[in-house]
Amino acid sequence: MNQSTSDDKSIQPQPSSLDLTRSRPGPVPVLRYGSPVESDALKHGPRMYVAVVREPAKLIDYVPDWEHLAQHAIEPNLFYEHWFLLPAIEAFGSGVDLRIVFIFSSNPERPTGPPILSGMFPLEHSGSYLGLPAATLSFWKHPQCFLCTPLIRRAQAKETLQAFFAYLASEAAGCSLAELNFIPAEGPLYQVLTGVLHERTVSFFVF
């Protein structure tokens, strides 16, 4: 695991200047859930939606959903919880092409109600990979992040990953390569992940 010791910035688990201490937002337009995901793998499952946020100030509106997701994640990752990630974006996000991908799904307990957040993927876009020209999306790893496991709701883990890969394969993602870096090569999420990749007949390498 690569760790940086040259940057003296420190991320503290406290409200940032994005003002997370303000009153929680009221109802937000349906557009916050993004666009429906079109995928053959999801034809008979829950309705899935993808929302891509590039402006840090807009992330505040997702905090209540984000907190609930973290409590029900298939694997925890404090580095990607809102109280850590938002200050990290302020400290290290300048000059980085970041996009936070939120995956929503229909609520199995309230099928006619609003969708629930089932996945959160902080991505960094780059025009090259290992020195070769290739539009690449990878999990964002700033100098004080030592684990890049995305937050994925346990009950919808498979469907969420299917929706995520459908997004990566779309023109909107703008990438030809995806690097799922700094995630454990074992455990419940890895089992679901490899199963989804095999179903999609995607070539992948573990190293």
- Classified by CATH, the class is Alpha Beta
Report the structural category: alpha+beta
Strand content: 15-25%
Biggest sheet descriptor: 7 strands, mixed
CATH architecture: 3-Layer(aba) Sandwich
Number of spatially distinct domains: 1
- At the third CATH level, what is the topology name? Aminopeptidase
> Separation of termini?
12 Å
| Percent range of helical residues | 10-25%
Radius of gyration: 17 Å
Rounded average pLDDT: 85
SSE order, one letter for each helix or strand? EEHHEEEEHEH
| DSSP E strands, number | 7
Number of helices: 4
Oligomer: single chain
Q: What are the low-pLDDT stretches, counting only 5+ consecutive residues below 50?
A: 1-7, 13-30
Shape: globular
